[in-house]
């Protein structure tokens, strides 16, 4: 009775699995890319930084526009005055009010500042380009991360299908061994072995399904999306021809994001030198002002009270030249030159590292692709061996242990092929990232 319950549990698990698979919706690669580009947290942060860089490179932050300011003022005083004049009686005046009003509109424009403003503007343009490259780098890294999990979901999903097929075969084996035992064609030990193997297959299937659910949640985290229903992914994998890969490698130095970033930093460092040198030159400013003033004064012993209003335009030009600032400008220029040399060293280092990484990635890709081809052939061999073993087992020419071993060999070959297939694809994507072509291919 207990063995029958085990068999029923195994059959029920397989049935529910098949039903849930049919209810799954497909999340293809393009949909996953669209979701990760629109909702991923890291990409969103990098795009916000790009927006800041775009604001910084605008004309409003260039220093080329004039400044216009206005000011208003009002003064009031209440005083007592004692006037003592020789030969006269002292004159005492109380609560004397003095009021003044003023307003002005001031315009200032820098005509020349040693070209510091020009090179700073160019530097901000380069910093925006650098931010664009940083966004691209974030997108590339996120896509690699997303596809690593995406293909892991695909691999486990295919393994689940293999285990489901294994369950069907194991269930048939249990039924067959029971029939044979009832007719006296085998021993109870054969039945127990079949039930044990079926139970192990059921446990493996349950664990694989749980692993699949966990990995699906990992993918939803990267996509920043929750799906109401279970989903499956595209298990079709296409590889880029090796000739095209070779062309990508030849142009890797022109397209690799790390090399492009260091070149931008090198240009920015060159502008830093020129910006620092602007401190050696004079600065010429133009200014203009429109002012209005009104003063109301109380009477004095010698003059009657008066109200005076002044208004008018004024303009001028000023030149300022810091002939010696204690050596601060010289230090800034020297440090900027050192920074430029540092960027040159980093550029050589990064080029060397990228060249090494591409060589390693290309060899890794070729090896994994070759292993995948071997694993495909190994599946064919084990499938033929299993089919023959199944026929021989059905007519009693081999034992159940030998049949089980052929079944296990086929399972291992199929799961190893799945692993090799997706490992090869991830290796290809990593190589494409190093060559700067990850965002230029059709997934």
From TrEMBL:
Q: Where in the cell is it found?
A: Cell outer membrane
Alphabetically list the UniProt keywords.
Answer: Cell outer membrane, Membrane, Signal, Transmembrane, Transmembrane beta strand, Transport
Keyword Manganese among record annotations? no
Return the SUPFAM superfamilies for the record: Outer membrane efflux proteins (OEP)
Q: Hey, what's the signal peptide range on this chain?
A: 1-18
- Return the Pfam families for the record: OEP
InterPro entries, sorted: OMP_efflux, TolC-like
Tell me the protein family, please. Belongs to the outer membrane factor (OMF) (TC 1.B.17) family.
This chain belongs to the protein called: TolC family protein
